[in-house]
Amino acid sequence: MTRQVAVVVLDGLRRDMLGPDATPALHAFARDATTFAAHRSVFPSATRVVSACFATGCLPATHGLQGNSVALMEDGTLTPHDVGHPGFMDHWRRVRGRTFAVPTLAERLARAGRTAMVFNNVSPGAARAHDPDGHGWVFHRAWAHGPGLRALPGAKAVTDVTLDTAGDARLTGYYLDRARDAGLAVLWLGEPDHAQHENPLGSPAAMAAIAGADACFARVRAALPPGTLLIACSDHGHQTVEDVIDIDAAFVAAGLKDGPGDASLLAVSNGTSALIYLHPGRQADANRVTGFLRAQPWVGSLLAGVDLRSAGHVPADGLLCAVSMRAEDRPNAFGVRGVGAAARPFAGKPDRMGCGQHGGLGAYEQMPFLMIAGAGFAPGATVAAPSSVIDLAPTILAHLGIPADGCEGRALQSR
Fold first, then answer.
1. What's the rounded Cα separation, in Å, for the pair 409 and 53?
2. Which pTM value belongs to this model?
3. Residue 196, Cα to own-chain centre: how many angstroms?
4. Residue 414 included in any domain
5. Measured between alpha carbons, how far is 41 from 361 in angstroms, rounded to an integer?
6. Cα distances (Å, whole numbers) of residue 210 to 27, 165, 312, 391, 393
7. Cβ neighbours of residue 344 under 8 Å, at least 6 residues apart?
């Protein structure tokens, strides 16, 4: 029998929100799966960079994508970019001559004569991060390609999918219709992340989105053939935003930037974190910048030097350091714990006070869930040892019998 892997990602669902009432399908699945009780995201704990880590089994320092939003050195100038844009991967390739520095799951499967298919309802950039060079199939409402980055027109695209619970349900139908023979079939739902960004955590709207995503998982589980390795997971958690900080404006006020248009020092927001870029011509100012950041009450952790490397990054391509914003273990109005500050987004994106956000190292945003059922995983077992999103690629490859050389994660099958 040809082995297959199915992955269902409920974007933004933190594991303390699972339960018999909120997520009955996942609660039932736990009886037949191994649960990983200390599963963590990466840094930034944000979907596009997590997608890159999922696809490669490597941390950002190795695959090269630093965050959901990044700065690229272009013609001697640091230029901020939103990785979620559908054309970002093509632009990135033009700027640096390639996309990821290591192979993706889609590329590894293609080399082995197998097929990877990704059905994705988050940002187009996150969808493309699974297969930026077109080794397999990607289906997204704004971007759909087959092997060779061949655009999928008309009925083969999924342009009628919306970013909400109804859209997730429609995309689940496409997944069930089209992914039956894929070696790896990934369904990445947009909820409950989308609803949690627009509503308070624990509110009726946010809980309804969790229920809708759980129902999509139930449909997938019921349709899978015996022997399929089934992975149910999320990419990060959420915490409540109670303050928004304009870090670039703080740099200007401190005399570290000449004004808003000074691109020699950039704070690129990644939600509740920020990547700090310093032009190579200003390296003499590095200690002034990090010293200023360490003194700010809105900084939870400053990741520089060894700390930056321990978070999976290297000071390359202009990246000086990173900030994880202040986070505290207090409840919001609906009793959901975890509040803190966010970095003001660029490019006119909205600030949503009182709603969910993620990207940093706060306990609740670093609380995704992971359950796996199939060969090598004991039903009803709980693993207390830490696991990470970079462990999923080698786990998938191990089930399919494909080498995972170069992956930084480890296969999670019991030995």
1. 9
2. 0.97
3. 15
4. no
5. 9
6. 13, 9, 30, 25, 25
7. 244, 245, 246, 247, 248, 249, 269, 351
